[in-house]
Amino acid sequence: MPYLIVHEDKCIGCRTCEMVCSLSHEGVVNPDLSRIHVLGYKGEKFPIMCLQCEDAPCELVCPMEAIHMQGGIRIVDDEKCIRCKMCTLVCPIGGVLYDYINHQMIRCDLCGGDPQCVKYCPMNVIELVPDDAVPEARKRGVRILYGEAD
Amino acid sequence: MFGYAGKILFVDLSTRLIKTIPTDKYAADFLGGRGIATKIAYDLIPPDADALDPENVLVMMTGPLTGVAPSSSRIDIVSLSPVTNLLGGSSAGGDFGAALKFAGYDGIVITGRSKEPTCIRIIDDEVTFHDAEACWEYDVYDTVDCVKKLGREDVQVACIGKAGANLVKTAGISFSKRNLAARGGLGAVMGSKNLKAIAVAGTKGVKVRDTKRLMEVNFEIQKRIRESPAFKKYENWHANIALSLLKARRPYFGDYEEDYWEEAEEAVRNAKRFFEEMATLRPNSCFSCPLRCWAWVEYKDEEAPMVACQGTFPAILFILKIKDPELAWKVYLRLQREGMDIMGTAAVIAYASRLGLVKLGTEDILWLIDEIVNREGPGNVLAEGVKRASEHFGVPAVYVKGGMESWSSDVRPFRGVALAGAVSESGSISRAIHGFPASSYYTKPEKAKKVAREIVGDESAAEPTNYKGKAKLVAYFENEHIIADSLGVCDTPMLSIPLELWAEAFTAATGIEMSPEKLHFYAEKIRTLERMFNVRRGVNREEDTLSPRLFESVIRSGPWKGVKLDREKFERMKDEYYKLRGWDERGIPTEETLRKYELEW
Ligand code: SF4
Ligand code: SF4
């Protein structure tokens, strides 16, 4: 199953990803309804979205057992979900969101396999990789944080 | 409405009354952004008002593409300019325009004057006033931080620094800590209204008509921007822009001196080394733009976001003759923190050096900036801008229309730039000449000639000193700028992408059919209305001019040795330009022209 990984060092904070994510999912441009969010600190930018954890806190905390993995993507059963928003509290990275217009929980769904943020990001910051490539990507992340390994 | 947010917010500071009106009222006639802003300014500002009177109106308008298409982050600001006392206009990128639309407003119209210093906070439908007494003299950085503490960290902020509060005529309006609506002294208008800041955050978003089509056009536009040669160049633009201006023979030195500044190359090399080796840069972009024209710059223990594409750093090097990049960086920080128009203030300081008040290239510049910001000593006169200062001191200065400080290009050899500086209603050349073939004649001659051939039918029109064809080029590029400013698109990327695609993006976003021809028609109409605004204030042919010094001096050395601006040929360019615009020989729009664009006095 492929995953999204983020090369945040290349991000220029243009928020094109937020624009196309909300456009493609909701038919409006509204960064607050985008499933990807670009956080910024001075010049540094960090795009974040649901990373489909293995032992997902959101799934574990859900009192209604509404969240489950389906085809490699975590989905919420709208019928079961009572909108208590516990999942937004426990997600360590802010990957799950509440759509306050349509009143439902939303998160990255990999756009059914063709993620629009990957397609539109001008700097190729977001990449869709097969799961066996993830460890390599994480190591890369560590190298960025702590400098090149010898 | 699709594409548009649908409402315009009116805030009267005298009475604190707030209302909204539907954007529909103006959109079909004036498109958006600069077009609608000009219309509102025309309707609301009395022809005899003074720029710093409460009767002046400050209009900030986004365009229908702001926030929904690539490189469309712009917001246009129109008001009576305290520099020229004529129509003033400037625009800014960043994230403010998009945030305003997401909050549900296409624009904000500020009227009246607040009794006490105030700040307006807009969170969707909630518009509140906050006391700004304590932060009135804060610089831009502290103001932004202070406003963010009001409750939401993610607000976008438009504000003035101390210069604006002190009604300095080269004060701009800062958008967060980096983008500046620099020209025309609009920061002083905000200051005169006792308005320190406007903060906005929105959660509503913008509806579009045809999602699929808009996404396709956006993809195509973005792809072309990424494939254009400029895209690669922007990676190192901070280090290279001064060099490329020099190669294009575009800078001027000091107070428009006749002699070439021999140390310019050295200054440019030092600046290049500063950005490549001494400072660290983190490239960034405005909302929805792939270009990365600004970077977070860190050097020693100071840091600032710096926009490269505007050429502000080169202006500091060239106009202030600074060879030491550390000093240039300090000057940059000071001017940016105070929210000042860097070009304009640099021109004022260069003029002061002619008076012997300051020695260019030295730390004294920092002292003089403070004097201007605080209106102390000679700074009090210099704060009035170059034209009024020259009237006070009796030493002739250089300026363009209405007394506006010139742009960082010598206008004497660049005939088109000279014409634009004289006919442009705001005196702001940057609203007219971007994309001009003469600007790239020495760096990309083939391309420059091609553009001239396409527009004028004669490639010799690209040659800077040639008077021929310049009127048509000015009219054409003014139109393109008006289209960019009215749609909400940044002019740098806009000009490199065929207009058809922007028209298509407009159609997809709004559901209203659009074509390049129609866009040009809108531009001509808006241009005519801008003219009417100034004609109503007494402008005619006489005011469409430059300061006399520019016609009287001959360049003595450097690449433009021997060049001078010929007044007679200049007047002939004006005739040609008026004809193209449908104005009579006094520069007044004819009855026929008004009928054509359905405009009335
Ligand atoms: S929403 Fe957060 S906790 Fe849940 S799977 Fe995604 S990243 Fe993990
Ligand atoms: S589109 Fe790419 S570069 Fe732009 S903010 Fe998103 S991740 Fe960063």
Describe the structure.
The complex is a heterodimer of chains A (150) and B (601). Chain A has helices at 16-26, 57-61, 86-90, 116-120, 134-146; strands at 2-6, 28-29, 37-41, 44-48, 67-70, 73-76, 96-99, 104-107, 126-130. Helices cover 26% and strands 25% of the residues of chain A. Chain A is α+β, with helices and mostly antiparallel strands. In chain A, a hairpin with a 2-residue loop joins strand 5 and strand 6 (73-76). In chain A, strands 1-9 form a two-stranded antiparallel ribbon. In chain A, strands 3-4 form a two-stranded antiparallel ribbon. Chain B has 3 domains: 7-201, Aldehyde ferredoxin oxidoreductase, N-terminal domain (Aldehyde Ferredoxin Oxidoreductase,  A, domain 1), CATH 3.60.9; 235-308 and 312-396, Orthogonal Bundle (Aldehyde Ferredoxin Oxidoreductase Protein, subunit A, domain 2); 415-495 and 515-597, Aldehyde Ferredoxin Oxidoreductase Protein, subunit A, domain 3 (Orthogonal Bundle), CATH 1.10.599.10. In chain B, helix 2 (33-44) crosses helix 19. The model of chain B has no long low-confidence stretch (mean pLDDT 96). The A-B interface holds A 12-16, 19-20, 22-24, 26-33, 42-45, 100, 116, 119-120, 122-123 and B 67-68, 70, 95, 102, 203-208, 211, 214-215, 218-219, 222, 225-226, 282-290, 292, 295-296, 303, 305. Strand 2 of chain A pairs antiparallel with strand 13 of chain B, so a sheet runs across the interface. Residues 50-53, 56-58, 74, 91, 93, 95-96, 107 of chain A line the site of one iron/sulfur cluster (SF4). Chain B: Residues 4-204 form the Aldehyde ferredoxin oxidoreductase N-terminal domain. Chain B: This is Aldehyde ferredoxin oxidoreductase N-terminal domain-containing protein. Chain B: Its cofactor is tungstopterin; [4Fe-4S] cluster. Chain B: Keywords: 4Fe-4S, Iron, Iron-sulfur, Metal-binding, Oxidoreductase, Tungsten.
